[in-house]
Amino acid sequence: MQYVITIFKNNEFHIGSFDNAEEAFESAVLCAAEAVSSILENDEIKVECNPPRIIISSETDALPFTIEECKKKIKIAFTDNDGRTYPEFSRVEVNPI
Prior knowledge:
Helix content: 25-40%
Distance between the termini: 7 Å
Order of helices and strands: EHEEHE
């Protein structure tokens, strides 16, 4: 079992110091993947990132949490302290594959 996190780019995002919006988005996805990996490090899982997707998989056949538990655990990787999705992202989906 694997979960795929698909991150959708916010086309209205101001790119700031990056050269282009795609570079800013990819950087944000890579940072989110690092955060997901850190959040789940005690769960013996593997996190792979290929923007705009992050794949969560297990060394065994089953992941140690349900998809709903996964969503709750990793929410902070994609939101600020007020629970708003980071401005680089328009939405984030988590689905089993």
